[in-house]
């Protein structure tokens, strides 16, 4: 299927590796030009080189997307933003009793206010052009909270509520806003979580991985490639009637009917 987005411009944040890179790669495969972002310049440049090999134009902007200066630099690198993929690292795990007000403000700033600022900056030109696609990478924790991820559960739910309202305001202009909720994908973040879990449980990393695998009906962790392909569909021309949704992609791990 041709997704009808060849030649459009996408900003993909947090895209040097992991799920963000998976989204950038799938969009590049559809002929979408990219502005990609991450904080570490060398890894970002390597990612940009791999993406350019797909025949699209790629601008790499190394900065912290949770800062105002970072967001300005990223947006300035795109001739126009047809597609916005909001993403960055997740907040740290821990017992909620140990989190300070500062920890909460940082998580809310990064996981709620940063995507909202980027949506605010890109939405009106999308409305004028009568075409726009926004995908926020959130987490399965929005649907089924994870006890050690209080900062993520809370801050991402704030973004989810905002999107539910905003998406309905702009749907008439062929601008869609959706959230993509990863379950367990085998990225550096998940691998680091296993290292921490193994340390805390005084076991080895393979045992920690095996324990988590047993909770996934698909019997495997997800890949960044398949995550990116779902994102690319959500950004396609065909997906114009698909908005305000929270799409869980988790190998069946969430046990509910809906
Ligand atoms: P990852 O493999 O660690 O990749 C994160 C990417 O974001 C990297 O490119 C990283 O590069 C960049 N990044 C991090 N903080 C940034 C910032 N402040 N500004 C700009 N770029 C930043 O993580 P992932 O597994 O792809 O996860 C992506 C998101 O999905 C996270 O929010 C995570 O919590 C969420 N999630 C993941 C899973 C999973 O199973 N993987 C499950 C649920 C939710 P630099 O470090 O160089 O900036």
- Summing up helix and strand content along with how strands pair, one would put the structural category as alpha/beta
**Can you list the ligands bound to this structure?**
NADP nicotinamide-adenine-dinucleotide phosphate
From the N-terminal CA to the C-terminal CA, the straight-line distance is 28 Å
Radius of gyration: 18 Å
- Whole-number average pLDDT? 97
The helix tally amounts to 8
Shape: globular
Fraction of residues in β-strands:
5-15%
Number of strands: 7
The proportion of residues forming helix, as a percent range, comes to: 40-55%
Main sheet: which strands, in order across?
A: 3-2-1-4-5-6-7
> Which regions contain 5 or more consecutive residues with pLDDT less than 50?
none
Q: Note the run of SSEs as H and E.
A: EHEHEHEHEHEHHHE
Q: Describe the biggest sheet?
A: 7 strands, parallel
SSE arrangement:
Elements: E1 9-12, H1 18-29, E2 33-38, H2 41-52, E3 58-62, H3 68-76, E4 83-86, H4 101-129, E5 132-137, H5 150-170, E6 175-182, H6 188-201, H7 205-213, H8 224-234, E7 246-249
Parallel strand pairs: 1-2, 1-4, 2-3, 4-5, 5-6, 6-7
The chain binds NADP nicotinamide-adenine-dinucleotide phosphate.
NADP nicotinamide-adenine-dinucleotide phosphate (NAP) binds at residues 13-20, 37-40, 43, 64-66, 87-90, 137, 139-140, 182, 184-185, 187-190.
């Amino acid at each position: 299927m041709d997704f009808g987005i060849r030649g459009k411009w996408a900003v993909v944040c947090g895209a040097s590796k992991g799920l963000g890179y998976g989204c950038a790669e799938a969009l590049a495969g559809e002929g979408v030009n990219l502005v990609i972002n991450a904080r570490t310049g060398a890894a970002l440049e390597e990612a940009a080189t791999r993406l350019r090999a797909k025949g699209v134009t790629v601008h790499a902007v190394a900065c912290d997307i949770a800062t105002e200066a970072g967001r300005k630099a990223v947006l300035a690198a795109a001739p126009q933003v047809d597609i916005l993929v909001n993403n960055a690292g997740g907040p740290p795990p821990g017992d909620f009793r140990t989190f300070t007000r500062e920890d909460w403000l940082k998580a809310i700033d990064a996981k709620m206010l940063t995507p909202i600022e980027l949506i605010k900056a890109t939405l009106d030109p999308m409305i004028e052009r009568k075409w726009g696609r926004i995908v926020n990478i959130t987490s399965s924790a929005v649907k089924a909270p994870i006890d050690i991820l209080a900062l993520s559960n809370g801050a991402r739910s704030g973004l989810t509520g905002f999107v539910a309202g905003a998406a309905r305001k702009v749907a008439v202009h062929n601008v869609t806003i959706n959230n993509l909720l990863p379950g367990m994908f085998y990225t550096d973040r998940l691998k680091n979580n296993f290292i921490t879990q193994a340390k805390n449980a005084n076991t080895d990393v393979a045992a920690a991985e095996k324990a988590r695998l047993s909770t996934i009906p698909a019997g495997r962790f997800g890949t960044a490639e398949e995550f990116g392909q779902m994102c690319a569909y959500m950004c396609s021309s065909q997906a114009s009637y698909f908005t305000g949704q929270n799409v869980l992609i988790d190998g069946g791990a969430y046990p509910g009917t809906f």
